[in-house]
Amino acid sequence: MKFTLKTVAALAVTVAASTSVLAQDIVRHGAGSFPISSAVEVPAGKATVYLSGNVPAVIDAKAAKDSLQAFGDTKAQTINVLEQIEQQLKALGLGLGDVVKMQVFLVGGPENGGKMDFDGFMAGYTQFFGPAAKQPNLPARSAFQIAALAHPAWRVEIEVTAVRP
């Protein structure tokens, strides 16, 4: 096959363009003062890692196993779950700054009149994401109140999507 100078030049431009697309950074669009991104753009060629939902671990082994005291309130459960996610990401060579999408499932327990404790969730969340956490990479995020999780004392389940830098 015979290549012309024009064909070789066109091929070089195509390869260069492909390389620059792969080298692009993740773009996070702010959501004002709220500690989330309103949108996150991930360029082609980045590896995406989907973590299954994480639920809280027991923090008080002396408490009854089906009690809220065993797992803590929404803030404590949020901190516990985000610490687990942080460890899981670390084992994969990633960190919380690599999270681009987060889905949060909150249960409204009787301690809050059946309503989710969004303030408690945010008190835990902002220890990991936002200005106070000194972690500037904010994920796009959704938070939902759901009827229940698999354990009666769980108030929080979080799943994340991360991108390898």
Provide a descriptive summary of the structure in words.
- It is a single chain.
- The protein has 165 residues and is of the alpha+beta class.
- The protein has one domain (25-163): 60s Ribosomal Protein L30, Chain: A.
- It has helices at residues 5-23, 68-71, 74-91, 118-125; strands spanning 27-30, 37-41, 48-54, 99-107, 140-146, 156-163.
- Strands 3-6-4-5 form a four-stranded mixed beta sheet.
- It is globular and about 50 Å long.
- Mean pLDDT is 89; it is low at 8-22.
Q: What is the CATH third-level topology name?
A: 60s Ribosomal Protein L30, Chain: A
Cα-atom radius of gyration: 21 Å
Uncertain runs with pLDDT below 50, 5 residues or more?
A: 8-22
The global form is globular
- How many separate structural domains? 1
CATH superfamily: RutC-like
CATH top level label: Alpha Beta
Strand content: 15-25%
Structural class of the helix and strand makeup? alpha+beta
What about the largest sheet? 4 strands, mixed
CATH architecture: 2-Layer Sandwich
Fraction of residues in H or I helices = 25-40%
Q: Mean pLDDT, nearest integer?
A: 89
What's the SSE pattern? HEEEHHEHEE
Intertermini distance: 39 Å
Let me know the number of strands. Answer: 6
